[in-house]
Amino acid sequence: MLGDTQSLTPLLPLQTQESVSFFSLKIHHSPFMTLSSQTNNHHHLVSVNMQETPFGSVDDDGRPKRTGSVWTASAHIITAVIGSGVLSLAWAIAQLGWVAGPAVMLLFAFVTYYTSSLLSQCYRTGDPVSGKRNYTYMDAVRSNMGGCKVKICGLIQYLNLFGVAIGYTIAASISMMAIQKSDCFHEKGLKNPCHVPSNQYMILFGVTEIIFSQIPDFDQIWWLSIVAAVMSFTYSGIGLSLGLAKVIADGTIKGSLTGVSVGSVSETQKIWRSFQALGDIAFAYSYSMILIEIQDTLKSPPSESKTMKKATLLSIAVTTAFYMMCGCMGYAAFGDSAPGNLLTGVLSGSGFYNPFWLVDIANIAIVIHLVGAYQVYCQPLFAFIEKWAAQQWPESKFISKEMRIPLPVLEKYNLNLFRLVWRTIFVVATTIMSMLLPFFNDVVGLLGAFGFWPLTVYFPVEMYIAHKRIPKWSTRWVCLQMLSISCLVISLAAAAGSVAGFVYDLKA
């Protein structure tokens, strides 16, 4: 994504057609809008849906009948997870080597699957078949844990969301730079320096996002999910194919059992880079924060938790196989010199830059994917702030007044001044941060480290313990706590490695 979301990856739920995917957003289902209790406005939205739904085609909660299945849920998870993070996996394996690299990837796959299975059982409070539904991750935290932990969870999600927006801006600008530099080399030769600044592309991406952010929500833009899924598999597939072709052409598999050797880098750098690689791999698997939203699209019977477990197993298996192929093939092609982003090697001197037209297509696919992914991840935060502001200042026309603007493309567009100002400020802030910290791998590693333990491990484990009322100090309770503590240590190590990478890159 960069997943994937994590996580964000994308925030649901689906339309009634099974082909509609994770990028189709319903604002009132967002996990980021539920720090406060449900409001009348929320119920109003539900009632509108009921009025538009034929009699008898509603679920036990009065909402339109859910139609999701194992296959649709798997598709949403795969679409959410496979993102630009896949491009950094060859670099991550290069830091760890042929033994530890794939082993760590399998470890993260297992942990993600296991904790996702725990989280899926928290969708309903009480009875697993007829209990009260938790529509979002935050609803599940509130129902099972409550108190200040709800706000802590929300804060972590918001910070992670802000970081994802920065990471997407950096990734998109790097791909646009790679396209220009590749074309320059093709036209003027490899000896030409072809200097390409990054700031102009970050600003261009930011301006594009300002425009797109004025769309109130993506409720009806179902095609965005299809486009994003196609783009994800396009650039990932091209990276895999180029790696395989290079290995065949070279006639050798590069790399070593322990990865980048001490000597080419210092002992300290080896340690920090290995830690950072953990964060990169964690980022590639992040999607837990949207799992409840995906589960809320599933039909029953059977119970949603059973269906979700099957979908999680299938999607994690497919994703891991794809990651293994992309990461290992990239490492086999480039060995210890594997770049941080396989498809922007023209910028670093390592990676793919021929055939230039194919690499350009891959980078164009990355940019298109990230334009949509940025918006879908940020829409929940946009909506939460706007809902909060409306509750704080209900009489303010600046916040509540909608002005209808006729546009040739749309039947109608309602302009809200507060939405225009607030969303523009947010995009400008993420763009400026991206210009200050244009380090793709460091940002990816830090995001993975920051979001993995709390959102993928800690909250699912604690919610499951509360949900199942597991006795304290029982064997199961101790095992779950040991899992959580172990993952905390991994996250702290990954965060330390990414911070060290920031410091090193800033010096350079």
Structure report:
- The protein has 508 residues and is mainly α.
- The chain has one domain (80-506): Amino acid/polyamine transporter I (Up-down Bundle).
- The chain contains 16 helices and four strands.
- The strands form two sheets. A two-stranded antiparallel sheet has the order 1-2. The protein has a two-stranded antiparallel ribbon with strand order 3-4.
- The longest helix has 41 residues, at 148-188.
- It starts with 39 loop residues before the first helix and ends with a helix.
Give the topology.
Elements: H1 40-51, H2 70-81, H3 89-120, E1 124-125, E2 132-133, H4 137-144, H5 148-188, H6 199-213, H7 223-250, H8 267-285, H9 291-295, H10 304-334, H11 345-348, H12 356-392, H13 397-400, E3 403-405, E4 413-415, H14 417-436, H15 440-468, H16 475-507
Antiparallel strand pairs: 1-2, 3-4
Helix pairs in contact: 2-10, 3-8, 3-10, 3-15, 5-6, 5-12, 5-14, 5-15, 6-12, 6-14, 7-10, 7-12, 8-15, 8-16, 15-16
